[in-house]
Amino acid sequence: MIWFLLLVFVFALVMGYFQVPIWIMYVVLAVMIIFFLIRNPLLFGKDPEKMLAYLKKSKAAHLQFLYHFLQGNLSAAEHALGNIRSKKAKLSSELMLLRERKEYGKAKDLLSKMSGHKTKWYALSDIAIQEEDAESFKQYKEKINDTFL
After folding, report:
1. pLDDT reported for residue 149
2. Which are the contacts of 5, defined by CB distance < 8 A and separation ≥ 6?
3. pLDDT for the residue numbered 6
4. If DSSP codes are grouped into helix, strand and coil, which group holds residue 37?
5. Looking at residue 114, what DSSP letter applies?
6. Within a 13 Å sphere around the CA of 10, how many CA atoms are in the beta-carbon half?
């Protein structure tokens, strides 16, 4: 991503030096963004093998975590979890790991640290379903104001 932004900056600098009209600069920028979006298999990809290969080659810690998690290698996923810098991504990744291992008590403690976002209520609803707690499920379901539900 940094190389992409650096490339955009260089193109803008060169076109500015040659005083290219602004509409040509916008067209070149749009083409570069579309090329970047099409090239990334996670955004518009349909082949799961290409997506997994992209996750495997990625240097981003969260994407490495997702690769190991999706492959079922939870110990490697836990190791990759330690390298994630973003607090939000680390929290959601840790939550995924705890729910996969069926450690619902720890997951509830972790969810108590989260703000009242719909992700929290979905996760708590899923835990209530897994624990077969109908009252808690109804309580959490009422807090979700989502048409997708």
Report:
1. 61
2. none
3. 87
4. helix
5. S
6. 7
H helices of 58-133, in order, are 61-71, 74-81, 87-100, 104-112, 118-130
Looking up tokens 């290969």, which residue turns up?
53
* Residue 147 confidence (pLDDT) above 80: no
Report pLDDT digits (tens) over 104-113: 999 999 888 8
For range 121-133, the mean pLDDT: 90
Residue corresponding to tokens 């996969």: 100
The predicted structure's pLDDT at residue 32: 81
What does R_g of the chain's alpha carbons equal in angstroms? 21
For Cα atoms 61, 66, 72, give the angle at the middle one, nearest 5 degrees: 130
Tokens of 107: 């997951």
Q: d(Cα 30, Cα 45) in Å, to the nearest integer? A: 20
